[in-house]
C-alpha cells in the first residue's frame, strides 16, 4: 500500500501520495471484522466514486475521522522524533548568520531541506489535532 519507499509524500497544500495514504488510513482504522469483510470483497480497487474523486488537501485532512487523525498525529510525532534537532533549533541555526556560514554548502542545503520537512510535519500536526 505504501509503495517502495515506505513513506508518504506531503506538500504544503495536499498529500502528494494521496491514494496510498487514503488506502492505508482506511485499512488501519478498520476493526478486525471490517477488515475481514473488506478483504473478502474481491476488489481492493473497488472503492466508492466519492473516495476516488476526493483529494487529500489540507482542508480534507482536517476533516478526517478521529481515529485517522490520531493515527496521523502519532505517526507525525514519531517522524519528528527521528530528527536530531527540533524545528526551533533549525530555525535558530538559520537565523544565526555566523553559525550558518560555518556550515559547508552541503550542510546548509541539508539544513534547509530538514527545516522545510519539519515545517510541513508541524503543519500536518495542526491540521489533525
From TrEMBL:
Subcellular compartments: Nucleus
Domain of life: Eukaryota
Entry annotated with the keyword Lipid biosynthesis: no
Residue ranges, compositional bias (Acidic residues): 43-53
This protein's record includes keyword NADP: no
InterPro entries linked to this entry: Rubisco_LSMT_subst-bd, Rubisco_LSMT_subst-bd_sf
Any single Gene Ontology cellular-component annotation: nucleus
Pfam families: Rubis-subs-bind
Molecular functions per Gene Ontology: methyltransferase activity
GO biological process, any: methylation
Residues covered by the Rubisco LSMT substrate-binding domain: 4-121
Location of the region described as Disordered in the Swiss-Prot/TrEMBL record: 39-58
Extent of the signal sequence: none
Keywords: Methyltransferase, Nucleus, S-adenosyl-L-methionine, Transferase
Name by which UniProt lists this protein: N-lysine methyltransferase SETD6
Gene (UniProt): Setd6
Amino acid at each position: 500500500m505504501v509503495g517502495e519507499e515506505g513513506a508518504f509524500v506531503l506538500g504544503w497544500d495536499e498529500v502528494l501520495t494521496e491514494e496510498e495514504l487514503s488506502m492505508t488510513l482506511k485499512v488501519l482504522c478498520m476493526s478486525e471484522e471490517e477488515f475481514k469483510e473488506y478483504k473478502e470483497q474481491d476488489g481492493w480497487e473497488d472503492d466508492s466514486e466519492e473516495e476516488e474523486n476526493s483529494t487529500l488537501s489540507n482542508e480534507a485532512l482536517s476533516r478526517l475521522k478521529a481515529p485517522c487523525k490520531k493515527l496521523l498525529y502519532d505517526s507525525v510525532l514519531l517522524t519528528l522524533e527521528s530528527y536530531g534537532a527540533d524545528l526551533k533549533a533549525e530555525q535558530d541555526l538559520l537565523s544565526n548568520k555566523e553559525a550558518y556560514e560555518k556550515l559547508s554548502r552541503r550542510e546548509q542545503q541539508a539544513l534547509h531541506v530538514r527545516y522545510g520537512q519539519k515545517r510541513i510535519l508541524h503543519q500536518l500536526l495542526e491540521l489533525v489535532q
